[in-house]
UniProtKB/TrEMBL annotation:
Gene3D superfamilies: Aspartate Aminotransferase, domain 1, Type I PLP-dependent aspartate aminotransferase-like (Major domain). This is Threonine aldolase. GO terms for cellular component: cytosol. The keyword Lyase applies.
Length: 357
């Protein structure tokens, strides 16, 4: 992959590779770079960085949550939430393909020492009666279920939007059992753009919410954890403990402000491109893809070709200057984002055609 960087560096204005691996590859915009250069900064650990404060209050306002905290990564935001909502030995119900369970190196077991209870949220949607059957009550053999996690949009389940109704039902259940809900909303603004439902509607039904600035919103670094005031003050302490408090973080937070102010509106473009990519590639042999489930900027398909393996296919795409990611032995993910243009979609479709037919 080293040559990717080299080539990009030489041709600064034109990306030679069409990089569909993730929306995390988005480079900051010129407006972000200007804001970063001019950011008013201070020591955020001492509470002096006005740009970080501004970003946090903007995030709280846009999500409808009481308070917000700027953290280095989405993973840290999720891990802070689990840490604060649980005690050692508690159980956490989550989806078996969720980011928290599947992509965070068992961190909830290491940092919070909780027991994950993974269920299958088909299409990202929690099955309320199945969840109820899996709630542990305090007794001789278990502590208790103290947290349920939900992900919207759902990355590993193809960027699907979890409907608002699921949130309402889950809230009702959790109120009955006094269980907290954490929303991994890494791409919650994609969910809002695709469904027309504002983030403030989804957030009404959860206790905490995290989202990434560094994905489709295209900021270089950072995520935001949102929740009640006392929760955020505890999160601030645990961020420190985990080594995630930052000093003149306003330099990167400035890009986050631009991301929140001007990059949400264009997410629909990414969704339209993902849909047109999915519609075309689903016609080729070896691609198993239900295009009716493509709702946002993620396209995951099963690759089952009689003569080419997933790895070989990705290599062939690479030789045609197209990058995508293997999600498993037989699953490939394409993600659209601000640095993917119509011409990249056409290039990808042509490459599929050449390789597969
Ligand atoms: C990317 C992502 C995260 C974590 O983000 P990092 O900043 O890479 O740690 C968490 N949840 C979901 C659903 C994601 O897609």
């Amino acid at each position: 992959m080293a040559n990717v960087l080299l080539i990009n560096k030489k041709n600064k204005n034109r990306l030679v590779f069409s990089d569909f691996r993730s929306d995390t590859v988005t480079k900051p915009t010129d407006e972000m770079r200007k804001a970063m250069a001019n950011a008013d900064v201070g020591d955020d650990v001492l509470g002096d960085d006005m740009t970080v404060k501004k970003l946090e209050s903007l995030a709280a306002q846009l999500t409808g949550m009481k308070s917000a905290l700027y953290v280095p990564s989405g993973t840290m935001a999720n891990e802070l939430a689990v840490k604060i909502w649980t005690h050692e030995g508690d159980e956490v119900i989550l989806d078996s393909l969720s980011h928290i369970y599947f992509h965070e190196l068992s961190a909830i077991s290491i940092i919070s020492r909780v027991l994950p209870r993974p269920l299958n949220y088909i299409d990202g949607i929690p099955n309320i009666s199945e969840i109820e059957n899996n709630i542990s009550k305090p007794g001789p053999f278990s502590w208790k279920t103290s947290l349920i996690c939900i992900e919207n949009t759902h990355n590993h389940r193809g960027g699907m939007v979890v409907p608002l109704d699921s949130f309402k039902k889950l809230r009702k259940l959790c109120n009955n059992y006094q269980i907290k809900i954490h929303l991994d909303g890494a791409r919650i603004f994609n969910a809002a753009a695709a469904s027309g439902i504002p983030v403030t509607e989804f957030s009404r039904y959860v206790d905490s919410l995290m989202f990434c600035l560094s994905k489709g919103l295209s900021a270089p670094v950072g995520s935001i954890l949102c929740g009640p005031h006392d929760f955020i003050e505890q999160a601030r302490k645990w961020r420190r403990l985990l080594g995630g408090s930052m000093r003149q973080a306003g330099v990167i937070a400035a890009a986050g402000i631009v991301a929140l102010s001007s990059m949400r509106e264009r997410l629909g473009e990414d969704h339209a491109r993902a849909k047109s990519l999915a519609d075309e590639i689903s016609k080729f042999p070896g691609i198993c893809l239900d295009t009716s489930k493509i709702m946002t900027n993620i396209v995951i398909f099963k690759f089952e070709h009689p003569s080419i393996t997933t790895h070989e296919f990705l290599q062939k795409l690479h030789s045609k200057k197209i990058l995508a990611l293997a999600m498993s032995e037989k699953e490939i993910r394409f993600v659209t984002h601000k640095d993917i243009y119509d011409s990249d979609i056409e290039k990808a479709i042509l490459a599929f055609k050449r390789i597969l037919t």
